[in-house]
């Protein structure tokens, strides 16, 4: 009898969902959970309508609005911007017509699609999860195969609950050692992208492994998997373990009682087998990581906060020199300038990358007892209504408000310039989001990606700051003595 | 979907790496419920100045590239957001083929669903084609999917490879939703087996 070939976590989930394989090796992959939002679904519903088709499993689908929605109180009356309102109303019409479960804007469970999936137990280990949104990779933190799809594929999943997929290559990124104080999951993933580049993971699924990944809580693992796509990989995964099971247990849509025990027994079979083959291996030492910040207009253009703006003329070839000159000009920088001297106009804390309760706590720990620097607009946008509620129960809203931050309603907000939260041309922003592309946060806006603690530090000093340089936070103010 | 067989047209040179989908179509133009009409917003941040006037330096604002049907670019084309609005915008402008050293995965797949052919060729070849494209009105390339060759203005044929199933769908303009729906019984069988093994997925 021969031993079965050792398989990776990705291979196991892929194999378990393979409906059939065609002669040329294209797999028909079954999809367990389909998340949808207002931006990438209307044309897919329209396609169904034109072909007279229905959803194969509406109950395996969940809809929410997040990209277009304002994050101020105005949304409780109406969405003022007519095109945004039309997209939200179109989703509401479509979910009613096709029988899709929907979390309305007024619900306390509304939030960013990638925050609410795990939060409500809709995303579970071992599942295949898709959404018309590239940051679907977030859900891979649970040990699920989760990836973003285009609208034609959204329509394909609607009609068939499957996708046509070629098997991806396996990449393992091992982060050894212990993360130093002041560093977070965001610094890990930014350091990984800086190392392998934005196309480093193309054609691959990344499994994040190693002591530093195992030590992360679920929020941290979600931050890391969220930005797999910025490294070029459609999906990122972390093997499910006791941290995962403890997180899932008791969530609204998670299995309960005996069903939970049975699920855990299956989930425990999923981690990569010893000796499983990875096509590409990358190793990183967590101990060498310093708080990271992006300086350019691609998520690979990241440096330690202690560094200076690079000189484009030092680049190896003319094409790269031209690219770097353009970045330096767009970002309004001078080669050689210390990153810590850059004054910020706006600070954005939130998004599917860093909008969870743990992120709110990390930012609040820096903001506590301090004041937002004069002239800086600092926004805190919880990733969901439930995150907001939890933060308020812990008094974090008061910490932010007393420090001069805005405390807003849940949504994608200033991550992508599709709703009223936008940068104006030339504004510089320390942002906990995931993309620093030209114009991503609004035309002409200048984005510096960083962790929630680093963003909060920038808010209180008014410039990009090494959070490790801030003196320990002053003691909390007595209850009624707040400024 | 319109089949893609052979295309002869003006090629626009875009010697940039990491052309992300926010660059191809910024998020503020995603507030549409239609697939059409996005061509005017293609590359909006590069194509128009802040006052809305055309930027004369941008390639697609110059003749003959206003009529480009092919785009030649550098590495990692289409990275970033999964928005299918990116291929829709290219298509609406009139571009049906993008040639680059490599493509981001999601964008690459989205192209095939919309009758756009992404062609992967080595960087040195792309640079050669970019030089060809800079010849202006004479910059006509032919992309023959049947024979799997790009034909340069001087007649040289450059072979490329493409996934056979995707090629078949593109050549015949096939809608793969329809194809998969014919596998309904096989999907039924999968669901019964999964429901028995993992009942928590079927609450």
From TrEMBL, chain A:
Cofactor binding note: Binds 1 [4Fe-4S] cluster per subunit.
Required co-factors: [4Fe-4S] cluster
Range of residues in the leader sequence: none
Matches recorded under Pfam families: Aconitase
Region listing for Disordered, in residue ranges: 426-445
Claim: Iron is one of the keywords in the record: yes
Example of a GO biological process term: L-leucine biosynthetic process
Pathway: Amino-acid biosynthesis; L-leucine biosynthesis; L-leucine from 3-methyl-2-oxobutanoate: step 2/4
Gene Ontology MF annotations: 3-isopropylmalate dehydratase activity; 4 iron, 4 sulfur cluster binding; metal ion binding
EC code(s) of this entry: 4.2.1.33
EC top class named in words: lyase
InterPro entries according to UniProt: 3-IsopropMal_deHydase_lsu, Acnase/IPM_dHydase_lsu_aba_1/3, Acoase/IPM_deHydtase_lsu_aba, Aconitase_4Fe-4S_BS, Aconitase_4Fe-4S_dom, IPM_dehydratase_rel_enz, IPMI_cat
Sequence intervals crossing the membrane: none
Protein keywords: 4Fe-4S, Amino-acid biosynthesis, Branched-chain amino acid biosynthesis, Iron, Iron-sulfur, Leucine biosynthesis, Lyase, Metal-binding
Binding-site residues for [4Fe-4S] cluster, renumbered to this chain: 352, 412, 415
Aconitase/3-isopropylmalate dehydratase large subunit alpha/beta/alpha domain boundaries: 11-462
Reactions listed under catalytic activity: (2R,3S)-3-isopropylmalate = (2S)-2-isopropylmalate
Subunit field text: Heterodimer of LeuC and LeuD.
Similarity-based family: Belongs to the aconitase/IPM isomerase family. LeuC type 1 subfamily.
PANTHER family membership: 3-ISOPROPYLMALATE DEHYDRATASE, HOMOACONITASE, MITOCHONDRIAL-RELATED
Function, in words: Catalyzes the isomerization between 2-isopropylmalate and 3-isopropylmalate, via the formation of 2-isopropylmaleate.
Protein name (record): 3-isopropylmalate dehydratase large subunit
Organism whose genome encodes this protein: Roseomonas acroporae
Gene from which this protein is expressed: leuC
From TrEMBL, chain B:
Gene Ontology cellular-component terms listed: 3-isopropylmalate dehydratase complex
Reactions catalysed according to its record: (2R,3S)-3-isopropylmalate = (2S)-2-isopropylmalate
Enzyme class: lyase
EC number: 4.2.1.33
Single GO MF descriptor: 3-isopropylmalate dehydratase activity
Cited SUPFAM superfamilies: LeuD/IlvD-like
Signal peptide: none
Record carries keyword Amino-acid biosynthesis: yes
Similarity annotation: Belongs to the LeuD family. LeuD type 1 subfamily.
Assembly and interaction partners: Heterodimer of LeuC and LeuD.
NCBIfam families: leuD, PRK01641.1
Protein function: Catalyzes the isomerization between 2-isopropylmalate and 3-isopropylmalate, via the formation of 2-isopropylmaleate.
Protein name: 3-isopropylmalate dehydratase small subunit
Source species of the chain: Roseomonas acroporae
Gene: leuD
């Amino acid at each position: 009898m021969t031993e079965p070939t050792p398989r990776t976590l990705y291979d196991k989930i892929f194999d378990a969902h393979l409906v059939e394989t065609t002669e040329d090796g294209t797999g028909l992959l079954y999809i367990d959970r389909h998340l949808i939002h207002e931006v990438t679904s209307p044309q897919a519903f329209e396609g169904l309508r034109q072909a007279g088709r229905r959803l194969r499993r509406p109950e395996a689908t969940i809809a929410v609005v997040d990209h277009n929605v304002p994050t101020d109180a105005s949304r409780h009356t109406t969405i003022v911007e007519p095109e945004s309102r039309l997209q939200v109303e179109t989703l509401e019409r479509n979910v009613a017509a096709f029988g899709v479960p929907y979390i309305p804007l007024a619900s306390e469970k509304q939030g960013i699609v990638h925050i609410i999936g795990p939060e409500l137990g809709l995303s579970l280990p071992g599942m295949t999860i898709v959404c018309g949104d590239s940051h679907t990779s977030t859900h891979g933190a649970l040990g699920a195969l989760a990836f973003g799809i285009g609208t034609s594929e959204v329509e394909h999943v609607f009609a068939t609950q499957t996708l046509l997929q070629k098997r991806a290559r396996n990449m393992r990124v091992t982060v050894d050692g212990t993360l130093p104080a002041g560093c977070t999951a965001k610094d890990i993933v930014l350091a990984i992208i800086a190392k392998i580049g934005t196309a480093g993971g193309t054609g691959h699924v990344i499994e994040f492994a190693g002591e530093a990944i195992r030590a992360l809580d679920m929020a941290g693992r979600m931050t890391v998997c969220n930005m797999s796509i910025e490294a070029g990989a459609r999906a990122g995964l972390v093997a499910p373990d006791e941290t995962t099971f403890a997180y899932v247990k008791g969530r609204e849509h998670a299995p309960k009682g005996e069903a939970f025990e049975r699920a855990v027994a299956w989930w425990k079979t999923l981690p990569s087998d010893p000796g499983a083959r990875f096509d590409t291996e990358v190793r990183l030492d967590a101990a060498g990581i310093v708080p990271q910040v992006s300086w350019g207009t691609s998520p690979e253009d990241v440096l330690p906060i202690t560094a200076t703006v690079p000189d484009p003329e030092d680049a190896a070839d003319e094409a790269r020199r031209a690219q770097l000159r353009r970045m330096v000009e767009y970002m309004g920088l001078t080669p050689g300038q210390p990153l810590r001297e850059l004054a910020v106009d706006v600070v954005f804390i939130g998004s599917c990358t860093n909008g969870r309760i743990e992120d709110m706590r990390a930012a609040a720990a820096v903001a506590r007892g301090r004041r937002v620097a004069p002239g800086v607009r600092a926004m805190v946008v919880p990733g969901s209504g439930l995150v907001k509620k939890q933060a308020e129960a812990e008094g974090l809203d008061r910490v932010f408000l007393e420090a001069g931050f805005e405390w807003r309603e849940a949504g994608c907000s200033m991550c992508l310039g599709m709703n009223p939260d936008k940068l104006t041309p030339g504004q510089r922003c320390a942002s906990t989001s995931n993309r620093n592309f030209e114009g991503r946060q609004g035309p002409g806006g200048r984005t510096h990606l960083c962790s929630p603690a680093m963003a909060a530090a920038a808010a209180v000093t008014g410039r990009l700051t090494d959070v490790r340089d801030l003196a320990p936070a002053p003691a909390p103010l007595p209850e009624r003595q707040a400024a | 979907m319109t089949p893609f067989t052979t295309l002869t047209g003006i090629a626009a040179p875009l010697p940039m790496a990491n052309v992300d989908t926010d660059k191809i179509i910024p998020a503020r133009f995603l507030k549409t419920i239609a697939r059409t009409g996005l061509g005017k917003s293609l590359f909006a941040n590069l194509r128009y100045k802040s006052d809305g006037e055309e930027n004369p330096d941008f390639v697609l604002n110059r003749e003959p590239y206003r009529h480009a049907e092919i785009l030649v670019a550098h590495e990692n084309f289409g990275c970033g957001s999964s928005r299918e609005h990116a291929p829709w915008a290219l298509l609406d402008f009139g571009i049906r083929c993008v040639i680059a050293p490599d493509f981001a995965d999601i964008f690459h797949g989205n192209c095939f669903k919309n009758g756009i052919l992404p062609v992967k060729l080595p960087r040195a070849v792309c640079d050669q084609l970019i030089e060809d494209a800079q010849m202006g009105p004479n910059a006509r390339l032919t992309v023959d999917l049947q024979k799997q060759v790009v034909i340069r203005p001087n007649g040289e044929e450059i072979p490329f490879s493409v996934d056979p199933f995707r090629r078949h769908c593109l050549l015949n303009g096939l809608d793969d939703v329809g194809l998969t729906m014919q596998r309904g019984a096989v999907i039924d069988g999968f669901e019964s087996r999964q429901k028995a093994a993992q009942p928590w997925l079927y609450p």
